[in-house]
Amino acid sequence: MSDAPTLYPVRPDFAAHARIDHARYEHLYAESVRDPDAFWGKVGQRLDWMRAPTTIRDVSFKQQDFRIRWYADGELNASVNCLDRHLATRGDKTALLFEPDDPSQPARRVTYRELHARVCRLANALRHLGIGKGDVVTIYLPMIPEAAVAMLACARIGAIHSVVFGGFSPNSIADRVGDCKSKLIITADEGLRGGKKIPLKANVDAALKLPGTNTVETVLVVRHTGAAVDMQMPRDRWYDAVVDGQSDSCEPERMNAEDPLFILYTSGSTGKPKGVLHTTGGYLVYVSYTHEAVFDLRDDDIYWCTADVGWVTGHSYIVYGPLANGATALVFEGVPNWPDSSRFWQVIDKHQVTIFYTAPTAIRALMREGDAPVKSTSRKSLRLLGTVGEPINPEAWRWYHDVVGDGRCPIVDTWWQTETGGILISPLPGAIDAKPGSATKPFFGIQPALVDANGQILEGEAEGNLVLLDSWPGQMRSVYGDHQRFIDTYFKTYPGMYFSGDGCRRDADGYYWITGRVDDVINVSGHRIGTAEVESALVAHPKVAEAAVVGYPHDIKGQGIYAYVTLIAGEQDNDELRKELVAWVRKEIGPVATPDHLQWAPGLPKTRSGKIMRRILRKIAENAPDQLGDTSTLADPSVVDALVRNRRQP
Ligand code: WT7
After folding, report:
1. Cβ 501 under 6 angstroms from ligand 1
2. Each residue of 338-392: pLDDT tens digit?
3. Ligand 1: distance of its center to the CA of 578 in Å?
4. For ligand 1, atom 19, which residue shows the shortest CA distance?
5. Which of 101, 102, 354, 400 has the highest Cβ tally under 10 A?
6. What is the pLDDT of residues 384-438, one digit of tens each?
7. Nearest atom of ligand 1 to the alpha carbon of 418
8. For helices 575-588 and 531-539, what crossing angle results, to 10°?
9. Best mutation site among 266, 357, 361, 388 for ligand 1, i.e. most ligand atoms within 8 A of its Cβ?
């Protein structure tokens, strides 16, 4: 690989037709940081406002007068921007193209007109059920068009949606429902993934038996697989029955730009997931603009993002960005490797997908299957590829470029976070030369910086912690119900700056290379798992005394979950208990948090004050026992030898 290119210049044929070429990027970037008000004022005009904003940016990252407000006196409705305003020009255009899990089942097209009608019917039904502005609706659905319908119906009536990923357990649903005091849940009988059924309704039933969930008055159930489910009247209602007979039009709620649009829970360093709060105006401006610019969007594109709506990528780049732009977005219910590992490429051919956006973990898993499943398909329709969720290793980047894209398609490696709402660092495909493994350059208005441990800003070529010096319209506004936690989590480590939690290197050309999380968050297949969450799930087991969880390099997942477990005195460790504990974590948090390796730890390395030294545990998990560093400050250095002896053998 040593002679493989490290620079992939912008393709002249692509640049010739691109929305933004190099000169325009440089010009617009300079303008965006010189005069953000003028820049974002202009960009804000891409939306339909019920009342046009007269103020654009109102921001301070300083503790004393902390505030983040964009377009603060503007009024709009997100669903109107995603639906109504397209009806005159593209009412018959496909908004959502649904490809089911089972390829023998028919695909379905939902036009903008139909989507509008469906959203209005559900919005009317929700109002009828007593849901209004500011109420929280939990959405726990598979990847079916109803997921987008549900989100937009909430937006239409000013309800705040909280989507919970289908891979979360009843406990996790209950925590999230309880935290935001949801009044209504929209779910389905079952989900389908790779031919396997996911008991969504049964999970909701189990969640609602748990304490803290009694705010839920209604559960709407989409009939998807037709499986028999328990319907508890009057709480549970069939979705079709409540929507049937509702009017196809629904007066949209006038929302202030800073009114909440949604909450999305994400893991941090502490045990409790945070309800990341996004608001209406700035978020929609930002996701629609980045979606258009980063993906060089044209009206005839068939755009496919393989994420699930349970994650922010699905919110911003399946639902809100693409629909605000009047694009055709593919909604895929299935998985990359079922019925076989050419499914992605077959779907691309079947629907003539032009833009394909996926995660490095999927690319690595498919790369492992060799070129044949790719080469058996045409993929001629593709013109642009994207990745998101974790650093992509150059080898996977090149395979994606050379094999999947036949060397024709630029790749946009997009760095961002649940908290950032939209893409912050990414090449623009007609403007910025790519380097495999680098997210390259900041988007308009984004001012990244690298700081050292003392918060000193590093200039030029450097490696440090990635911060952002100024706001952008899509930035999260609060942690739901705990504004102080928002300020403390993101603006306290480096006062006056937003701290991303990521490490990063900047090379001599000013390119950014994200090196991964520097906090206690593990990125498993692009999904964020807090080590503290897994630890508290483990210690909740009656036989576990103590647990410490770290990430370790994993060929496919990027990072795997490595758990060290100390049993309570007298309990015997064995393989059966190991399996039981792994299953326990799946049950407690959900399959997303399944430990990849569990090691018995007679003792954990602790300082004399009792703090677990994770640095040491990480090195053992990485199988690098020669890099443990100084262990002399440990209360009992001998525990390390035992852990090293019994470490995972790759
Ligand atoms: C974390 C955010 C952004 C939506 C999906 C994940 C990592 C994300 C990249 C990338 C390197 C990346 C970071 C970030 N990450 N994209 N292109 N290159 N790392 O959202 O669950 O909020 O996770 O994902 O570590 O902090 P999320």
Report:
1. yes
2. 999 999 999 999 999 999 999 999 999 999 999 999 999 999 999 999 999 999 9
3. 31
4. 390
5. 400
6. 999 999 999 999 999 999 999 999 999 999 999 999 999 999 999 999 999 999 9
7. 22
8. 120
9. 388
Q: Which atom of ligand 1 is nearest to the CA of 416?
A: 3
Contact 557, 361 (CB under 8 A): yes
Ligand 1 atom 1 nearest Cα: 417
Domain range annotation of the chain: 12-442+461-504, 525-646
C-alpha to C-alpha distance for 327 and 323, rounded to whole angstroms: 6
Cis amide prior to 339 (ω within 30 degrees) = yes
Global ipTM: 0.99
Q: Please report the DSSP string for 173-236 in residue order.
A: HHHHHHHHT-SEEEEES-EEETTEEE-HHHHHHHHHTSTT-TT--EEEEE-SS-------TTTE
pTM above 0.90, yes or no: yes
For the domain made up of 525-646, the CATH class stated in words is: alpha beta
Question: Which residue lies with its CA nearest to atom 14 of ligand 1?
Answer: 417
DSSP, collapsed to helix, strand or coil, labels residue 58 as: strand
How far is residue 534's CA from residue 520's CA, in Å, rounded to a whole number? 11
How many angstroms separate the alpha carbon of residue 415 from the centre of ligand 1? 6
DSSP class of 6: S
User: What burial letters (b/e) apply to 227-262, b meaning 16+ CB within 10 Å?
Assistant: eebeeeeeebbebeebbeebeeebebbebbbbbbbb
Choose among 471, 461, 386: nearest CA to 429: 386
Write out the CATH class of domain 12-442+461-504: alpha beta
390 is in an annotated binding site: yes
Measured between alpha carbons, how far is 397 from 394 in angstroms, rounded to an integer? 5
Q: Are 579 and 565 in contact (CB under 8 A)?
A: no
CA-nearest residue for atom 24, ligand 1, is 389
Burial of 219 (0-12, 13-18, 19+ CB in 10 A): buried
Whether 165 is in the pocket of ligand 1, judged by its Cβ within 6 Å, is: no
Q: Would you state the structure tokens that stand for residue 387, as one six-digit string?
A: 């990745």
Alpha carbons 572 and 574: distance in angstroms, whole number: 6
